[in-house]
Amino acid sequence: MIQCKFRPHFFVIISCLVLASCTSKEALKPSENSTQDSIHIFMQDIRNNDLDFKTRLSIANKAFQKLKNKEEDGKDARIEEILAYKIYFFDNLKQLDSVFSINKTLLQLNIENKDSLAIASNYYRLAYYYFQTDKKDSAFIAYKLSSDIYLKLGDSLKIGENLMQMAIIQSDLGDFIGSDKTAIQALKYLDDTNLVYKSAIYNCIGISAKNRKNYKEAIYWYKKAIENSTISSFKAVRKSNLAVTYRVLKEYDKSIAIFEELLKDGDLDNDTKAKSRVLDNLAYTKWLANENENVIDDLLAVLNTRLAEKDLFGLIASYDHLTDYYTNKNPDIALSYANKMYKQAVILNSARDKLSAMQKLIDLETSTSKAKEYYNNYIKLSDSIVDAERAILNKFEKLKYDSEKNREDNLQLKILISKRELELEKEKTRNIIGATLSGSVVFGLLVFLYYRKQKYLQEKRTEVYKTETRIAKKIHDEVANNLVNIMNKVQYTEEPKELLLDDLEKVYLLTRDISHQNNTVETGEEFENSLKKLTYKF
Fold first, then answer.
1. Apex 18 CA angle, 12 and 22, nearest 5
2. CA-to-CA distance for 506 and 515, rounded, in angstroms?
3. In this structure, are residues 259 and 281 in contact, taking their beta carbons and an 8 Å threshold?
4. Which of 137, 222, 361, 475 allows an S-S link to 242, with CB 3.0 to 4.6 Å?
5. ∠ at Cα 335 (334, 336), nearest 5°?
6. What is the pTM of this model?
7. CA dist 100 to 84, 94, 105, 128, 323, Å?
């Protein structure tokens, strides 16, 4: 049986929530001191991995009720955390109806809070549970909704992960061409750091190719899936798919070699179902290669293991192989196994397996009436499968159309937004240019005024220097010389006092003239008085 499944366990989906939470080593008893204190203690117990799931669920219900009774109903962020934990607890307690109910409540709360990241995450989680309960069409829609939100958020890894799951669902439901398109699209969002997802996508493409009977193509993709597998259990599944494809091509030696290698590696020792699948396929392939090969003990041993493990899908494969083994050796035993295969397919509601079982019953049934009845049922079931697959294809096409229409509407909206942003950018640019020009003018004016002021000060300094030089020269040339002459007369002659006084008066008049020549002229309101005083002195 070809394996396409890639099912992340629930703890992976909320691991960030569970692992980020602090865990207590002792079970704390909620105090009654205050609502806030009791909720805080409740949260510690909810996160306490030492308590069993039922106890933690009971505490979560109490904490949730307390928070709901507070005035700020629904605003406390811990409500969302508690709901996420309740989903986790119900999942581990195998109460999937409650899981769906709580998940939808949490999703609605996320929508009310307009928390896009939480909405996308919860759609993904809801899709996971839809798939677990075989509601694959609902799972596909939920993955699609999650992918669309992550697309807006620009989270490439999550987009690729959602598209991968969608491709697997399409392959499981028979939309192989659509599955390939979705798978190739998923690869565009994943790089070499996402080998786990890339390997699952390659495996899915290989399964779609095999189901279209394009076996060479299937082998190519299975090999790529194996090359990119980083988890031993996943790699074993890919190798098993490759071996089954070689068997279909009747390349039995290659198929047997791969199955024997898988058993020798020891990677399946802790996985009873996977090991039984390989043992069953190995025995069946050896028998196909040589009908005289004694493999019945191995086939029956695997059957007994699957009955003990309640491996329901594995039982279908065992009954299928045992029917083929006994068809020529003992048709009656073959017929009994074919009946068991059909009943098991009915229990699991596996249409394809029911169809395969009916084909064996038609070939083995000796009673004409029963054979005719099986044939009529076969035709009806085959028609219903075709109709169901056609309906699925139509649903996928509608989802694709709605998605493309949404993308087109979003594109138009983006164009309008881009135009508006362009206008705003132009306006912003004009404002910047205007502000720059204004700033330049003001700066230029300040520079000009500063230059004029510096020039004026320089001119004043030059004028002062010239004035001081002129005064110094005049004092030296006139006043100093006259003083020297007077000093010589006093020292070397007997000039009368009157003559010396005349000489000193001349010096005085010279100094006064120098002072008057360098005084400022009052030109304001005191100009008249200043002029009169100057004339009077003269």
1. 150
2. 14
3. yes
4. 222
5. 90
6. 0.65
7. 12, 12, 9, 11, 40
Amino acid at 157: L
Helix, coil or strand: residue 77: coil
State pLDDT tens for residues 83-136.
Answer: 889 998 988 888 888 888 888 888 888 898 888 999 999 999 999 999 988 888
Tell me the range of 34-38, 359-363, 506-510 where mean pLDDT is highest. Answer: 359-363
The rounded distance, in Å, linking the Cα atoms of 239 and 223 is 8
**Cβ–Cβ under 8 Å, residues 180 and 207:** no
The alpha carbon of 291 is separated from its chain's Cα centroid by a whole number of angstroms, namely 54
What the block records as the tokens of 241 is 């798919």
Distance separating alpha carbons of residues 509 and 377, to the nearest angstrom: 147
Burial class (CB in 10 A: 0-12, 13-18, 19+), 285: buried
Identify the pLDDT of residue 393.
67
Which residues are CB-neighbours of 499 under 8 A, at least 6 positions away?
489
The Cα diameter of the chain in Å comes to 178
Determine what percent of the chain falls in helix, strand and coil, rounding each to the nearest 5.
Answer: 80, 0, 20
Q: Phi first, then psi: give them for residue 186, nearest 5 degrees.
A: -60, -40
State the Cα–Cα distance between residues 495 and 489, nearest whole angstrom: 7
Which residues have a Cβ under 8 Å from the Cβ of 275 and sit 6 or more positions away? 263, 268, 269
As a whole number of angstroms, the distance between CA 108 and CA 418 comes to: 32
Query: Above 80 in pLDDT, residue 215?
Result: yes
**Cβ atoms < 10 Å from Cβ of 389:** 14
pLDDT, one tens digit per residue, over 272-303 is 899 999 999 999 999 999 999 999 999 999 99
Q: Determine the residue type at 397.
A: E
